[in-house]
């Protein structure tokens, strides 16, 4: 008997035309130049309760402490052996939002880079945060909050969190603003989150419906829009553009399989063409038979309609049999395979075989 070793989580996002809803342009696209920027810095966390780096194994922590003390006017004798267990070397990361101005506060994430056991209760010392251009854009400092939950019982304890990383809410002060070209050109560009020529056409039509001849398509992901030169008027104009609604087109059929967790996700109903697959002790037969419907012999109106009726038969050597009628839907096939006992590798092999045979008419992505 086949044992199910992996639990498959099948997520279906059925985006059929009848269920499509209007969405704002701001949910489908962004303004070119309006973006976040990543910041990074190296610093020290002090005040730990004996859970810091073991300085004998992390020489960079000792070097950082000596350099910091030297900048503060404390000169240690050469050859001093520091045995500090309340200090940890950390990397500090943050995201600088668009249009951030000096004096604003942003959150930072602090992560241990040595062998510290925990950063709980520590204090991050003043750390400059730099961008990709090696310029300092913010200064971080503050008390670290390590989230999570812990429970202790007689003679045992359970810790449900990660102790070597934490956050400081509002822990960095912006010192430099990133230049923005939003108001320095005649045009602004809308960049779609995903490439879709149909959505580009719909956005162009929606904008030109309110502002004739203002928008033009550049490619499958960009729309150029003529905007006012004055900054105040341009902001109002962008606000109106972002609030326009369109009914997005259906994306291309796509199936994503996570080989590590066994999860399967598809962005819409994916059907299968006629095929027969034999894999190990499993066999899958998919039949699509035409069903003809025509009006009665004395009907004045009507037309002949030819539809497809699909049936899927799944068998295993143990005698397990499943019949799926009413449509060769990939989601139902995956659920049937897992019910019989297919493993992650079985599912991956079957999907790849269906794709190679032309039965699976969708993009297959394995991560």
Order of helices and strands: EEHEEHEEEEEEEEHEEHEEEEEEEHHE
The number of helices is 6
Rg of Cα set: 30 Å
Q: How many domains make up the 3D coordinates?
A: 3
What portion of the residues fall into strands of 2 or more residues? 35-45%
Approximate helicity band: 10-25%
What's the total count of β strands? 22
Mean pLDDT: 78
Strand order of the largest sheet: 4-5-6-11-8-7
Structural class: alpha+beta
Distance between the termini: 29 Å
User: Which spans of ≥5 residues are poorly predicted at pLDDT below 50?
Assistant: 1-18
- Major β-sheet, in short? 6 strands, antiparallel, barrel
What does the overall shape look like?
flat
Function: Assembles around the rod to form the L-ring and probably protects the motor/basal body from shearing forces during rotation.
Subunit structure: The basal body constitutes a major portion of the flagellar organelle and consists of four rings (L,P,S, and M) mounted on a central rod.
Organism: Nitrosomonas aestuarii
GO biological process, one term: bacterial-type flagellum-dependent cell motility
